[in-house]
């Protein structure tokens, strides 16, 4: 018997994700709350999925910021559009179905954000949509950084979250193309664990790197104060 996927409720919006291969998870929530957002202009969400990142960015920005999400999967694109339509920001969020590898952006963006697929050599998922959402074969890192280079404004930021080894690969591809790490946050599940994710913001100008660490749960396995503070505007429980 198939169990229905319940919606994910945030303080100001709800995300339905039963038609999406990848459900709302901690990675997207962390990135959506951590990434620096522009005061005005345009934002692009690459691999939008259910639309969670676009909705979080909309909550954190003014009406002067327009947000576009691009998603390869048709069902996820429609569900993201439905989620936006039920949100307070429906007039400034749009979702498009398309392949980032061939899509032509109509203009440049002041911020690009992505929780990208990252498995490149692991066993495939038995479900094609989930495999597509999880595997970098559908969006290789070298192709992603090439597209971001084309689409971002000179002063814009590209923010992403990835497992540590995958983030290192993406940074190594970006730096020879003139990218610099502006912000770097190592995410660890508990104080005694090594970091399992990096959140990174890249810019085109040389800069000092702001390096931080975020621990999700403290030594008592309760959510840490820093994690609660980061997600306080979104999580119902905080």
TrEMBL record:
EC number(s) reported in the record: 2.1.1.223
Catalytic activity annotated for this protein? Answer: adenosine(37) in tRNA1(Val) + S-adenosyl-L-methionine = N(6)-methyladenosine(37) in tRNA1(Val) + S-adenosyl-L-homocysteine + H(+)
Q: Name one GO biological process term.
A: methylation
Top-level EC class as recorded in UniProt: transferase
Give the UniProt keywords, A-Z. Cytoplasm, Methyltransferase, S-adenosyl-L-methionine, Transferase, tRNA processing
Cellular location(s)? Cytoplasm
| UniProt cross-references to CDD domains, sorted A to Z | AdoMet_MTases (cd02440)
List the PROSITE patterns. Answer: N6_MTASE (PS00092), RRNA_A_DIMETH (PS01131)
Q: Enumerate the GO terms in the molecular function aspect.
A: methyltransferase activity
UniProt keyword Transferase present:
yes
- Show where the Methyltransferase small domain sits: 32-131
Q: Establish whether keyword Cytoplasm is in the entry.
A: yes
The record's comment on protein family reads: Belongs to the methyltransferase superfamily. tRNA (adenine-N(6)-)-methyltransferase family.
Q: What is its biological role?
A: Specifically methylates the adenine in position 37 of tRNA(1)(Val) (anticodon cmo5UAC).
Query: What is the protein name for this chain?
Result: tRNA1(Val) (adenine(37)-N6)-methyltransferase
Give the organism's phylogenetic lineage. Bacteria, Pseudomonadati, Pseudomonadota, Gammaproteobacteria, Oceanospirillales
């Amino acid at each position: 018997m198939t169990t229905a996927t319940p919606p994910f409720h945030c303080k100001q919006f709800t995300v339905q994700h039963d038609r999406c291969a990848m459900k709302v998870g901690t990675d997207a929530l962390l990135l959506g709350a951590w990434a620096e957002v522009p005061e005005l202009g345009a934002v692009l969400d690459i691999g939008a999925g259910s639309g969670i990142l676009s909705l979080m960015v909309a909550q954190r920005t003014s009406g002067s910021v327009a947000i576009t999400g691009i998603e390869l999967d048709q069902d996820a694109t429609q569900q993201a559009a439905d989620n936006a339509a039920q949100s307070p920001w429906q007039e400034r969020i749009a979702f498009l179905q398309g392949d980032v590898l061939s899509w032509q952006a109509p203009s440049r963006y002041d911020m690009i954000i992505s929780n990208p697929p990252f498995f490149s050599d692991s066993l495939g998922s038995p479900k094609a949509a989930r495999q597509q959402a999880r595997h970098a074969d559908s969006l290789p890192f070298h192709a992603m950084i090439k597209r971001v280079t084309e689409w971002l404004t000179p002063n814009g930021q590209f923010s992403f979250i990835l497992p540590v080894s995958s983030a290192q690969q993406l940074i190594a591809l970006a730096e020879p193309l003139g990218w610099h790490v502006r912000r770097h946050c190592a995410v660890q599940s508990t104080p005694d664990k090594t970091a399992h994710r990096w959140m990174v913001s890249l810019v085109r100008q040389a800069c000092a790197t702001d390096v931080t660490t975020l621990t999700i749960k403290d030594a008592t396995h309760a959510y840490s104060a820093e994690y609660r503070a980061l997600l306080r505007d979104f999580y119902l429980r905080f």
